[in-house]
Amino acid sequence: MGLFDIVKEKISELLSGATDKVTELTESAGNLTDTAQGATDTATGAAQDLTGTATGAAQDLTGTATGAAQDLTGTATGAAQDVTGSASEAIPDVNPEK
């Protein structure tokens, strides 16, 4: 085997090794892209879940506040009617037509 053949064989081995390394790096880059996409999807899902939870909590709070306001209005109306009724009973009827 001549010197040219030895050099040619060594260059082929080196190129083959370099090709293998490029292939490995390409696969790794693809895996990183998949991992990044998965992380993005997870973060997006978590943000949507958090938004839904916050919206639900706000709606519950609004419903509770509305209910409390309606209860308070009913209580105040009832108390005002009781005071009016008590005052009407306490004040004698001064209608001379009776």
Descriptive overview:
The protein is mainly α. It has one helix and no strands. The longest helix is centred in the middle third of the chain and has 88 residues. The protein is rod-shaped and about 145 Å long. The termini are far apart. The model has no long low-confidence stretch (mean pLDDT 88).
Number of helices: 1
CA-CA gap between termini: 142 Å
Could you name the ranges where pLDDT drops below 50 across 5 or more consecutive residues? none
**Helical proportion, percent range:** over 70%
What amount of the residues lies in strands? under 5%
What is the typical, i.e. mean, pLDDT?
A: 88
Structural class: mainly alpha
Query: In sequence order, what are the helices and strands, one letter per element?
Result: H
Shape: rod-shaped
Largest sheet properties: none
Question: What would you report as the Rg, rounded to the nearest angstrom?
Answer: 42 Å
Number of strands: 0
Protein name: MT0933-like antitoxin protein
Organism: Kibdelosporangium aridum
Describe the structure in brief.
This is MT0933-like antitoxin protein. By secondary structure, the protein is an all-alpha fold.
Offer a few descriptive terms.
98 residues, mainly alpha, 0% strand, rod-shaped, MT0933-like antitoxin protein
Per-chain topology:
Blueprint: H1 3-90
